Every structure is written in structure tokens, then in C-alpha cells.
Amino acid sequence: MNLSVKPASCLSGKIIPPASKSYSIRAFIIAALGGNSKIINPSLSDDVRIAMDACKSLGAKIKKIKNNSWQVKGVGSQIRFPKVLKVKESGTTLRFLLSLAALSPRKMIIRAEGTLNSRPNHPLISVLRKKGADIKGCGVNEATPITINKGRLRAGRISIDGTLSSQFISSLLITAPLLKGNSLIKVAGNYVVSSPYIDMTLAVLRRAGIKVTKKSQRLYRVEGDQRFKGLNTFKVPADYGLSAFLMAAACLTNSKIILKIEKDNLVQADKKIIDFLKKMGISIRVFKNKIEIKGSDHLKGGDFSCRDCPDLVPVLGILALFADKKTRLYAIGHLRAKESDRISDFRSELLKVGAKVKETRDELIIYPTSKLKTNCLIDPHNDHRLAMAFAVLGLKTGIKIKNIECVNKSYPNFLQDLRSLGAKTI
């Protein structure tokens, strides 16, 4: 379905932003491994529903008990490995369950859909093979479908590259407690991308009674033969990365909106959006139970490292078009292996609207443009974050977006929330 977004002079209102997709997936998968859990207010995006279905196929019992509260009874030591595990287009579900699948006592196949069939898994699969798993993906990137034959995964010293995706490290951290013997996971490579997401995984593991010693950002000691004890009651926090699109909408339209977000101590890489917007000159006030954002006619450009928060790149890229000087978004090479090539594909669509954008292997340089084209037809490349970013741009220029339903992957109520603030879309 194509969506047309009309220019808006001002937005206003209060919104309860969506729950964290990242925490929701971690909560269901870790809860599924043992004990009893009650998960309150999870995201019900496509990716989370896929994770829930995958957990059920492993033997976990998940049921809705009231409103948006879910009861999970974990499998304990009785994981039921299916012949075929379907992860559709959820990369997080795929990567998190890859290491667990390597424990299967019989042959199984992991199947995906869409662009996930071309995304790389080689760093993790290579490590799993070295530790005893009979596992193989397709092609040099070890893409799906992935076949696991009978074989056991061994504990011990594990070294894995951290320059492509933090999901590989999280995957090992989730499975290592089930192995016989202790493991020492070393993260190799020149740098570690999205490291706060590893901390998110550790936070949920600890809630389940799992002991992991973080010796540094590159070294983790995991005790073996542990039992997952469940999460008790886990309330999923708001998603700052998805809230960033609403914040950006307020910024571009010189509006004032309130996001009902309660302060918490849970780590989220995308909380960095608060600092980034302040650096760009936006008035943003954080209270105990809400965040107020007031737009500005004078956005400031600058340099922004997005190594730990790559999901913010599309938001910052749109705002950069209206800044007072060029904006450089750097340390983002790992964005090329997302739902789209989130560097080249984003740039190609920005060029359609008349933007001046340069790209290198791991950065985007965006120059302010005095006059952008109006009502252009944009292809988000089936990438939910590109689709939402261009919808925000449409509030300034007017725009048409193909396949807008791809936003359901992370934020099913995005258009509804945008409309409730005063945006006009057809």
C-alpha cells in the first residue's frame, strides 16, 4: 500500500510510545528457557510475534492473561527442537536462537523470508562449528536456510568478531549457561558495534537468575550447567528508538508534543537520541514520567557517532536536511546488513527528494538543502525505519511512500500515533 503524507505546520498532543521491541524479544526468548514469567506491556510488532511463535515451537507455553500481559512457562531442560524453525523476517529471533539450535540432537532447518535470506550469519556459525556444532548456512555469508545436524555444542573459550552485529554475542550469552562447563566469550575485531544491546541481554539474563561476569566490553565469563528461573514480573520499557520518529516529527514542524515515558534504569542504546537532539538545538525536557519536545526553526548540524545506536541514523539523516551546516553520521558500516543497506538505500531515496548526500564505507555526510522536491514517491526497500523516517520528512515537504505496511515490523501503530498528533495521511 502506498501512503501519502501531507505537510503539517504544527503537531501537538500526548502519546504513549510503543514498548521496546528489543527488550520484548529478549524477555520472551529468555523466559521461554525456564521458570515462570509474567511479561507486561510487550511490543506486539511483527518481530515480537515471530519470536513468540518461535518460543512456542521450542516447547514454551505462552498465553495472554489480561490486557497486554502475558504468562510464559519455560521449557527448562526439555527443549523441543522442531524439524523446521521459522523466523520469517526477524533477524533478532534468528540470531538469538542460532546458538540454541546448535544443541539440537537431531537434524533441523531454520528458514527465513524476504531480505533476511541474504543477511550474513557467518561470524556466529563459524564459531559454533569450531565448538562442535554440525551447522551450515547458504553461501559464503552462511545465510538462511540454515541446517543443523546432530551434534553437541561444547563450552570453553570462544572468540567471535564484534564488528558486524552484537546479536551474535547475545546469542552465545543466552546459550552458554546451558552448556556443560564454563565458557569465556571474547569479542574480537577492531571495535564492538551496538555494545549497549549486549548489556540489554545481560540485564534480562540476570533477571532470570543467570550468572554472567562481564570482565570488560570484550570479555564475558559464563558459568555452565545453569537453570533459567524465569523473569517473575517483567515490565517492558518504552522504545526510545521508535519514539525518536515522533520526536523528529515535532522538531521539523516546530511543534510541542509529550511522550509518556517513565524514567527507568534499563540500558537502551537509543536513549542517546536525547543527547543528539539537544546537540542539534532542540528543546527537550525529561521528567519522571514524560518527555516534552519542542521543535525549532534552527537545527544545528555536526558530527554524530552512531556505532552503538545505528537505528537512529534514519531519524538524524532526515533532521540533517534542515540543519545549519553539514551533518556527518559515522561508524555506521554495520548498517549495510540490516533490513536494507541502510546507508546506500537511504542515500538513494534522499537523492530523489533533491538532497545532497555523500557516503563512504561507514558514514553518511548530509548537507542542508534549501529547496527539496515535494510529493516524491519513495521506496523504503521494505525497511521499517526508512519508511518511518520518510513519513517524518513528508510532514515538511509532502511525500508518497511505497509499502508503508512494512512499519508493522516494529511499530504497528505508527501512523495512528502520527495522525493523533495532527498529521494528515491518506
What would your notes on this structure say?
By secondary structure, the chain is α/β, with parallel strands linked by helices. The protein has two domains: about 5-20 and about 240-420, UDP-n-acetylglucosamine1-carboxyvinyl-transferase, Chain; about 20-230, Enolpyruvate transferase domain (UDP-n-acetylglucosamine1-carboxyvinyl-transferase, Chain), CATH 3.65.10.10. It has twelve helices and 23 strands. The strands form six sheets. A four-stranded mixed sheet has the order 2-15-17-16, covered by helices on one side. A four-stranded mixed sheet has the order 4-5-3-14, with helices on one face. Strand 12 and strand 13 (about 220) form a beta hairpin. It is globular and about 60 Å long. The relative contact order is 0.15.
Which descriptors apply to this entry?
four-stranded mixed beta sheet, UDP-n-acetylglucosamine1-carboxyvinyl-transferase, Chain, 426 residues, 23 strands, alpha/beta, 24% strand, 12 helices
The oligomeric state of the chains shown is single chain
Q: Do you know the CATH topology of the largest domain?
A: UDP-n-acetylglucosamine1-carboxyvinyl-transferase, Chain
Shape: globular
CATH architecture of the largest domain: Alpha-beta prism
| H/I helix tally | 12
CATH superfamily of the largest domain: Enolpyruvate transferase domain
**Largest sheet strand order:** 2-15-17-16
The number of domains is 2
CATH top level of the largest domain is Alpha Beta
Uncertain stretches: none
Strand content: 15-25%
Sum this structure up briefly.
With 426 residues, the chain is α/β, with parallel strands linked by helices. The chain folds into 2 domains: 3-18 and 238-420, Enolpyruvate transferase domain (UDP-n-acetylglucosamine1-carboxyvinyl-transferase, Chain), CATH 3.65.10.10; 21-232, Enolpyruvate transferase domain (UDP-n-acetylglucosamine1-carboxyvinyl-transferase, Chain), CATH 3.65.10. It contains 12 helices and 23 strands.
